[in-house]
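Quick start: what a row looks like.
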Amino acid sequence: MKNLIQSEIKKIFFLKFSKNYLISMIAMGLALGIIFSLTTNVTQGKAITELSPMDIVSTNMLGVDLANVMLIIFTALSISKEFSTDAIYVSLVVTPNRKKFFASKMITYFLLSIVVSIVMVALTYLTSQLILSVHGMSRIAFQNANLRQFLLGVSVMPVFYCLLAVAATFIFESSGGSITFSLGIMAIPALIKMFSSTIQKLVMPILPQSAIHSLSGVAEQNSFESLGIFFSICILLAWIILVSLIAVVKFQKQDI
């Protein structure tokens, strides 16, 4: 398994495009967050000095959303390329155990998403502190419990959706299907909120966004998104396990 993971990592970073894409992803995410933070008078109707330090950090973290979307696209394109170019045949000759092959992909992109997530969140937090200092506002210390919970919840998001994209690519065998599925899961909450409270009460608690919002502490109390930490973790794991099981079953039955 170790050799497989090392091989997958080399596949990712062998191409100059991949390295440039990942660097651009982080740079664009940081830039977007800074833009949102410096234009609150337009986006929120308030001057930046009217907001609390936590609000500035939260606004700046919107850049992580862009990085999350770009990571989904990168993951789907990278894996689907093996199916579209028939390189999957060579890969399966080298690794005929399809479960092991799938697991190596999941572990590789799990490690990649953790690195991307930590780098993005850390840099965004530091730029938030810089923005606060430049505007003469008090900085928010990392020791702040609410801040740590928020950063943890934000960090979970890219990891979850990256793994979801990996499994979805094996299900649909195309980048388009994987990207549509992953982004669709992200967009569902906005659609569900258009329905009655009865439907929201049934659906919202089992959606990934609710779990991530609960983990980050931004879910409003007594709302349908408000879940316990343990239940939130279980929801995210259940999504990954369910989609992965479907992907493995389909991959094993596939005539390749």
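That is the whole record. The chain has a mean pLDDT of 90. Residues 40 and 251 are 47 Å apart (CA to CA).
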